[in-house]
Amino acid sequence: MEQFQGELIDRVFDRGICVKCGACVGLCPYFRYFDGIVAVMDRCVAGTGRCVQVCPRAGYKSTAPQENATDGNGIGIYRSVFKARASVDTLHEGVQYGGVVTALLAYGIENSFFGGAIVTDREGALAPSGMLAESVTDIARCAGSRYSAAGSLAVFNKAIKDGKGNLAVVGLPCQMEALERMKHSIPDGAQRESAVSLRIGIFCTWALDYRMLKDFLRANGVTGAVKKYDIPPPPSEKFVVFTEQGRREFPLMEIRGLVQKGCSLCRDMTAEHADISIGTVEGEEQWNTVVLRTEKGEAFFEEALNKNIVEKAQLPDQNLNHLSTASRNKRKRGKNAELELSREG
Amino acid sequence: MNELFEIKGGDERLLQGNEAIARGALEAGVRFCAGYPGNPSSEILETLAEAAKELPIYAEWSINEKVALEAAAAASFAGLRAIVSMKQNGVNVVSDFLTNLTLSGTGGGLVLVTCDDPGGISSTNEEDARLFAKLSDVPLLEPATPQEALEMTKWAFELSERIKNIVILRSVSRLSHTRANVLLGSIPPYENRAFFDTKSPFHTFPVLTKHLGRHRKLDEAMAHYEGSSFSRYDGPERAEMLVISSGSSWNYAAEAVEILGLTERIGVLKLGMTWPLPVNILRRYLKYSERIFFVEELDPFVEEGVKALCAELASEVGIKEFYGRSSGHIPICGELSPSVILGVLGDIFSISWRAEEYRARMKSLLPQPSPPREFGFCPGCPHRGTYYAIKEALAWDGRNGFVSGDIGCYSMGIWPTGFSQVKSVHAMGSGVGLASGYGKLGQFGFDQPVITVCGDSTFFHAAITALINARFNNSDILLLVLDNSATAMTGFQPHPGTGSTAMGEKVEPVDIETVCRSLGVGVEVGDPYDMEHTAETIYRLMQEAGQRVLILKRKCALVQGRQGGFPYTMRVDQQKCLGEDCGCGRYCTRIFRCPGLIWDSSVKKARIDEVICVGCGICASACPSEAIIRQQKAPN
After folding, report:
1. pLDDT tens digits along B66-100
2. Residue-range domain boundaries for chain A
């Protein structure tokens, strides 16, 4: 594939399959994440474009070597999988479910396991966007899910530009994939990779197109910034929005139409390129599912466990089977969508 | 005292055509002068405004051409001689009043000068304003030289008073901006006796009677003209061809005939009045030849009139063969030049006139042709920041939005210097009127955001009515007033917002922000140099409905340059500059494109052109690698 911006525009932007991971943003002036979209600002002519190399959609295919190796389980290579929750609910207004991500990040920053964490801030006048959290207060502020990638890797790129290192990166599967692609990108991928201390991936079925969501909410009388979004685990089939005015519920069916087109191509539900992947547990609202994938992830989680920051328990087989089935189904859907797209040309 | 305004005449001065017109008006005893700037007309009123500082006359830059003529007509109604000047587009603006004024008639001599711009060199259109003379039943004069411009202007006032109607004097760029020695006459003594005689009102009723009266006056004008010395014929009584020309193109015809050695074979007739056509003069010279060649700028105005006359007089003047625009000998548009006429006559008479040897030698001496250049905003121009911010906001918005543009330097937003954001440009104020229309298209499925822009002078000229229209009809409109405190494109003439008049009088400026607020539309003010913040503001305003005005205030860079200059010395850190690499891709010289930035192809890095860069500093915030460095200039 030609490594030019034009290729990225043809393959991703013109097809409307950008997932707003933000990996192409912040490297140059040609892309910007703004109010929920990644905008192409101008045409670039530089070759060896890092933008096209890191994009999780430019090549369509998952980079996952895991995919073929572990097609049986659907959740990629891992060392252990269990359920966990934060031991102390100190911070943690706004956390989703077991609060494990927030607890791990706060612990990691407080004890200088990493200097900062790339997370997603809440929305204000504009869409949620990435943030470099450098304190427990920052972490607490960003707790909770946005159901959107929010271009947060743009902030990662900027942090590296600003000379920051030793970063934890929290992201959706597409963002973990982008980091994986970055590792192999030329000319400076390896160097950029060295700034990443820990990759925490969030399970994702799909993410929402923020602007479509905003229009939908506005049409339904919800104006102003949303404090928290929630999709309670099956079988609730609900999308819940918390605002200054209170709580609103919408049937999940209505929300599905707001899913980003690019998400349909995704084959990775459990963030297979993370060190630690974290999601919900079906039917158990106080817990998270945790997948430890790498030695690094395992070591860090063990520390937090020993310090009693989080507690763990066995994930029932039934839950693991469901997760596995759901993940395999996502792979299938992704493959089919890819075929369809290649037919579109 | 400026020697151009000397009372006593008798000396020769080197005058520009427009100065000669102004001097002619002074020699006619003009008291009231008005206009709206626009190339190639601006120097007429500028000269008269200078004169007004020394002589007991009045001059103003009016808010637009129509008001200029109305104001000048008031002076005429009160018995004073008055002049208005404008470019061809201005005559369109004037036309509503003009076509009524012609029925009411005038008092003191009233002359409208239109300076047409053949080739559209500094215009949004190419237009022959002479047609308005025919439309309005008004005499039309076309001087050919600066000397004649002076004489004819003076004479136009006499004619106006004789027929009690306005007279149009038409110049073109090449006359307005040429210079020649001109013999000055004297300026008559002034006396103050302005008076509106209520027994002789000025109105258009009864319309038919007045209309009939105008046609009679045209006959009178023709007779008066035929007694003047503004016609000229050079050539034999039996000619192989008769050239009929008017205005500055007469010079091209005369020159071409001489260069080709055809003075004994071709006759050249110069007409000073082209509406109404001087029938008796034409009747005489049409008999001189069977072949008629028309040489005039822009439309076949004389050509069509003479052809009609030839049909009428066929039994008397015989059957003719015509050469001109409809025969294809003269291009249907574009400016004439001696070589165009040489080409036509050379072909017809089979005379080679191109000195090939000379051309070859010239080519060999010139190492290479001058590099192609594109239109561009000046270094330091606030419009660059504005369009950069617009570009950003439109990209962030992502709904295929665009800019409805208007007339001024910022029209150049259609080109890369303004990041090609402007997608329509027409007449003054039209961008805002169009936006008012787009703002009602939502009901038909139109969902593209539109940003309209206009300058401060344009805001007053014609945009304000369109904005009120949007307010009245509740159209969704986002207007950016690019307030650079100047009528910059035409040469910094004052306007209602600048705080001084044509004659240098200090006045309270009309504040655009206050005007907009009084209309009940949303108003914000921003700084176009703060591109990021401005882009965010534009984006936010784009998401809102209703009428929104954002005033982007920054002095025109040329004004700022004269009033204290700019704060920074700029340089490019050669270590930090990424050049063509990923992360930059020559962003500053390829996208941002300020002429103060240059690409050094030998080292593949950007540099500052110290001669061009003024030090506004905005490129520093566009550089992706912070390689463009601002350094505060030492205070003087």
Report:
1. 999 999 999 999 999 999 999 999 999 999 999 99
2. 1-57+78-345
